[in-house]
Sequence to fold (289 residues):
Amino acid sequence: MNLLDEIKESFREGSALTRLIYINLGLFLLIRITNVFYFLSGTEFPILDWLALPADFGMLASRPWTLITYMFLHFDFLHILFNLLWLYWMGQIFLNYFNQGKLVTIYLLGGISGGLFYVAGYNSFPVFSQIVVDSRLLGASASVIAIVTALAVHAPNHILHLMFIGPVKMKYIALFSVLLYVIGISSTNAGGNLAHLGGAFWGMLYVLQLRRGIDLGKWITQLFGGIKKGFAPKPNVKVSYRKPTDDIEYNRIKNQNKIRMNEILDKISKSGYDSLSKEEKEILFRMGK
Fold:
């Protein structure tokens, strides 16, 4: 088995977490390799602009798919490295408490919530009015923080052992992260921090609604379940034919069985089930199927 086959097998047999990481990493490599050819040809690289999420309402209306694609899109190595490490660590913990379907649901809807917060923020606050047309958002950060806050709400006392710090409860990690995002709105990455807050909001809301028996992302699980079922290979159905028994012989056997069954039922009504012999019990069981 060559490397490509091993990757395909790992993707097919891996968990939802593995697949999310592969999709992010695969798209990153595809983007960066494609960018090399554009660079060598001396032409502008347009793909990022078509996949990143624009803050401008008009541009978003013409590229609605970016509300999904942006959360799998990275261009800088350190950006994807930290996002995927965070996704892997938090995703492993998440799967100890929830199933794989809910991981995908929170990732996708957390990313959408983050994107909406970003777009709404850039079109609501005057400080962004001069840059809204040229602003773009990319990266999995909002999706990842949605997973973190979901964990913090569901298992607030889950302890992580952080390097140089020691044991820290999940609720403090989420709280500190959200605080940094609020402070970071006034930094050069205002859009990213708005998106992080949107992801955090979704993670919290999703788990709080789950406690009430409401799964806000159930339709996502059903959608992917239907897609998976549609692409699943159809089982080979083998049809066998039996030669019919002669009608007279068939009716004779049927009548004998009926008489025998009536005799057993009469015996049960008179003496009870325990009075039946082993053979009679087997007949009763066989004919009762």
Remarks:
- Residues 157 and 164 are 20 Å apart (CA to CA).
- The longest strand covers residues 159-162.
